[in-house]
Design brief:
379 residues, alpha/beta, Rossmann fold, 6-phosphogluconate dehydrogenase C-terminal fold, Alpha-Beta Plaits, nine-stranded mixed beta sheet, 13 helices, globular, disordered N terminus, binds nicotinamide-adenine-dinucleotide, binds prephenic acid, NAD+ binding, prephenate dehydrogenase (NADP+) activity, prephenate dehydrogenase (NAD+) activity, Prephenate dehydrogenase, tyrosine biosynthesis
Length: 379
């Protein structure tokens, strides 16, 4: 088996060359995005979902064909985490030659449940995996062909997983454009507790504070609150399952944050009085922000590359058809690669603010080109 950690290389690819048919079970956001990505690579994708509407919608959006009972080479189970294990077990039983993978956000508990359901010997063809890509929206309608492009896709082999089965899933994940990382399931769960599950809890807590805020205060919302709360729009049912499935790893992370939050409150309390005593409270607050800077600087860039600091320019665009296309054409004509893009809608104004991120070396040229084309450009 290939439980070695590390990034897949192109030399290792090719393991899925013999794969012609992939069955996707659960045709929501992730299942349909897999279907779109693999269909685009010439693979025959068969779609199955207990909801006939979800299944038909995925088909209509181009994610594949409705499953007709044809034997698949590979099955991706993209069902909710609380049913992933029994669905994997069913698929292993139904297709005795297929490699069966799941894509659920937690890995160890699902693998343990599958082992209990089918027995260790049948785990040879099972490979746990988790694309670190997603959206705060659910269902096929939110699926995207390039959802996995440049994102990490974690493959978590079990001790029983056959090397060939692991290689097939690594290879298919790579064919969606993802950067494949292989690691044990328990390490995956500890990692996502910090990099995925904590952010969801934090975003939901911050956004929940806005429920009672008067309209006049909400109207002041700028990019800060939007950045911190985007994922607060996520599906409560899915996230209850994810947090329950990884509770043992998430609880200590939340406890550490809670302890640090209590210390921050004490420092801020000390500073709230008219003439704060010199007791180190300012230092504690400064450390909080500085530590955050250090953590933020460690977040990898595209394709898992070293953290990249991009330069940004902000361009107001009119809220009218074709404005976006014109802006992109002007950037493209200048041969400048956009590294990232964000859009803010001005409150009460018929303009949007587009933030373009580029490598620092080309930002001056971008500014010149856009000004020359008549755009007004802000830092
Ligand atoms: N949403 C994300 O950002 C994200 C990212 C990576 C991985 N995941 C994982 O992918 C899986 C699917 O999440 P999603 O966001 O696509 O959810 P979704 O709600 O968009 O889709 C889930 C689909 O599964 C179907 N389903 C329900 N019960 C089923 C069953 N018993 N058998 C087969 N299908 C069933 C539903 O009808 C629905 O179409 C989850 O396990 C989730 O943890 C989600
Ligand atoms: O971008 C988002 O909407 C996500 O939150 C995606 C995200 C994450 O990055 O934490 C959330 C949960 C999934 O298991 C994988 C990816």
């Amino acid at each position: 088996m290939s439980a070695d950690r590390g990034e897949d290389t192109s030399e290792e690819r090719g393991a899925s060359k013999g794969v012609t048919t992939v069955r996707v079970v659960g045709t929501g956001l992730i299942g349909s995005s897999i279907g779109l990505a693999l269909s685009g690579k010439g693979i025959r994708v068969l779609l199955s979902d207990p909801s006939p509407t979800a299944q038909a919608l995925a088909r209509d959006l181009g994610a594949g064909a409705i499953d007709d009972g044809e034997e698949p080479d590979v099955v991706f189970v993209a069902a909710p985490p609380d049913v992933a294990a029994p669905v994997v077990a069913d698929e292993l039983g139904r297709w005795p030659r297929a490699v069966v993978a799941d894509v659920a956000s937690v890995k160890q508990r699902i693998a343990d449940d599958v082992r209990e359901l089918v027995g260790s010997e049948h785990l040879r063809r099972y490979v746990g995996s988790h694309p670190m890509a997603g959206r705060e929206r659910s269902g096929a309608v939110a699926a995207q062909v390039d959802l996995f492009e440049g994102r990490t896709w974690v493959v978590c082999p079990q001790p029983e997983s056959e090397a060939g089965a692991v290689a097939v899933i690594q290879d298919l994940a790579a064919r969606t454009g993802a950067a494949v990382v292989t690691m044990p399931a328990d390490e995956h769960d500890a990692a996502v507790a910090v990099v995925s599950h904590l952010p969801q809890v934090a975003a939901s807590l911050v956004a929940a504070q806005l429920r009672e805020v008067p309209d006049d205060a909400i109207a002041l919302a700028g990019p800060g609150i939007r950045d911190v709360t985007r994922i607060a729009a996520s599906d409560p049912m899915l996230w209850t399952q994810i947090l329950a499935g990884n509770a043992a790893a998430v609880a200590p992370v939340l406890r550490r944050v809670a302890d640090q939050l209590v210390a921050v409150v004490e420092s801020i309390d000390a500073l709230a009085v008219a003439d704060p005593p010199a007791g180190g409270s300012r230092g504690a607050v400064a450390h909080l922000i500085a530590d955050g800077q250090l953590g933020h600087a460690r977040i990898p860039g595209k394709h898992g590359a070293a953290p990249a600091t991009y330069a940004t320019v902000i361009v107001p665009i009119p809220d009218e058809p074709g404005a976006f296309a014109r802006l992109f054409n002007d950037v493209g004509d200048a041969g400048i690669n956009l590294e990232d893009l964000r859009m803010e809608h001005g409150v009460g104004a018929p303009v949007g603010l587009v933030e373009l991120s580029v490598l620092p070396g080309v930002v001056d040229r971008l500014r010149d080109v856009l000004e020359h084309k008549g755009w007004s450009v802000h830092e």
